[in-house]
Design a protein that fits this description.
Order of helices and strands: HEEEHHHEHEHEHEEEHEHEEHHEEHEEEH
Number of strands: 17
Number of helices: 13
Distance between the termini: 45 Å
CATH superfamily of the largest domain: Type I PLP-dependent aspartate aminotransferase-like (Major domain)
Low-confidence stretches: none
Largest sheet: 7 strands, mixed
Radius of gyration: 21 Å
Strand content: 15-25%
Structural class: alpha/beta
Strand order of the largest sheet: 4-12-11-10-7-5-6
CATH architecture of the largest domain: 3-Layer(aba) Sandwich
Shape: globular
Length: 404
């Protein structure tokens, strides 16, 4: 049997059409650069959607993976393993958390968090305390439970009936939360910065007031740090910069530096409610993922990496402002460290994907956050010269779209 031609056309033949990937097919990456099948080179401002926090094929991550691949790949959770324990210890040593649950993705981490929140309320207050409050435009994953907690109805459409007991209120609106929260609320779920919703940071006073309302109503505070965690904002986790400590936190994306892994972090107060047999994951905590994540976390949690995020953020903002002064295309630029969103002016709302495609033609990989925001989540160690060169490409892409 002959080998198929592996190109973008094959995607349409063999893949479910829930994605519509770009026409180029990347085949190799090093640092903040990627090459496609034709040998074209791209600067990567996408970072695998905030995943490749140390760029592509970081040599220390590659070495860690290769070493572990010669030792042990998988065990059932009837057993534990050394890499999982080392990673869990590193997470508990460097965060508020006392206990860790490992899984494979952000959605799985959030699924575990929401189940734990309800189980904790059930154990301590009774079955009627089951309501989860989250925020409009929030995003928490694509399982039926997590997409229901998420505050974007378009992702739930067609999959109803959705799980009940979930209320959505406007983000950064403490009065709306006050009106919604009650003794039936088991948890409030929020992102420190809404990523998919448009890169919208939580106001620090709002976040503090959410914590106070949770405490007053015996509700848990769950921080979804899938996108903001592991150095993205210049703190190891964004809650550290907000000065607000959650009861449960979820992490994935950058945690593995590109290798799939998710984690739920919890305090000793709430963790016991996920007792023996209440939850599980076949691949969660596997030695390969935990080895890579342990190395990625140790590299990112350093003064050199975290300390440079603010400087790189300033360079991105400076370059975006230069572009805007020339083209008047952004109504607002919002950011938290190297999670950056540039909202298009109203005339270009709904057309963000045009800029993504044009950037690709110029040799730049970027993202969108909804149909009106250009999003960038590059490597935390992207060289300044790559930022400047990438911004030159973005300016040309924007000029190309505006001239069309």
């Amino acid at each position: 049997m002959s080998q198929p031609t592996v190109d973008r056309a094959l995607f349409d033949q063999v893949m479910v059409p829930n994605y519509n990937p770009q026409q180029m097919v990347p085949v190799r990456g090093r640092g903040s650069r990627v090459w496609d099948q034709a040998g074209n080179e791209y600067i990567d401002f996408a970072g695998g959607i905030a995943v490749n926090a140390l760029g592509h094929c970081h040599p220390e991550l590659v070495a860690a993976l290769k070493d572990q691949a010669d030792e042990l790949w998988h065990l059932s959770n009837t057993f534990t393993n050394e890499p999982a324990l080392r990673l869990a210890k590193q997470l508990t040593d460097n965060t508020f958390a006392d206990k860790i649950f490992f899984c494979n993705s952000g959605a799985e981490a959030n699924e575990a968090a929401f189940k734990l929140a309800r189980k904790f309320a059930y154990d301590n207050f009774g079955p009627e305390k089951n309501e989860i409050i989250s925020f409009k435009q929030g995003f928490h994953g694509r399982t039926l439970f997590t997409v229901s907690v998420g505050g974007q109805p378009k992702y739930r459409e067609g999959f109803e009936p959705a799980p009940g007991g979930i209320t959505h209120v406007p983000f950064n609106d403490i009065e709306a939360l006050k009106a919604a929260i009650s003794d039936k609320t088991c948890a409030v779920v929020m992102e420190p910065i809404q990523g998919e919703g448009g890169v919208i940071p939580a106001d620090p006073d709002f976040a503090k007031a959410v914590r106070e309302l949770c405490d007053a109503n015996n509700a848990l505070l769950v921080f979804d740090e899938i996108q903001t965690g592991v150095g993205r904002t210049g703190e190891l986790y964004a809650y550290m910069g907000l000065g607000v400590t959650p009861d449960i936190l979820t992490s994935a994306k950058a945690l593995g530096g590109g290798f799939p892994i998710g984690a739920m972090l919890a305090t000793d107060r709430v963790a016991p409610s996920l007792g023996f047999g209440t939850h599980g994951s076949t691949y969660g905590g596997n030695p390969l993922a935990c080895t890579v994540a342990d190395k990625a976390l140790s590299l990112i949690n350093s003064k050199e990496v975290l300390g440079a995020v603010a400087e790189k953020n300033a360079l991105f903002i400076e370059e975006l402002n230069k572009i805007n002064a020339k083209h008047n295309i952004f109504s607002e630029v919002r950011s938290g460290g190297l999670l950056i969103g540039a909202e298009l002016v109203e005339a270009w709302h709904g057309k963000a994907a045009q800029f993504l495609a044009a950037a690709r033609e110029e040799g730049l990989m970027i993202l969108v956050a909804g149909p009106k925001v250009i999003r960038m989540t590059p490597s935390l160690i992207i060289p300044d010269e790559d930022i400047r060169e990438g911004m030159e490409k973005l300016e040309r892409a924007i000029a190309r779209v505006l001239a069309a």
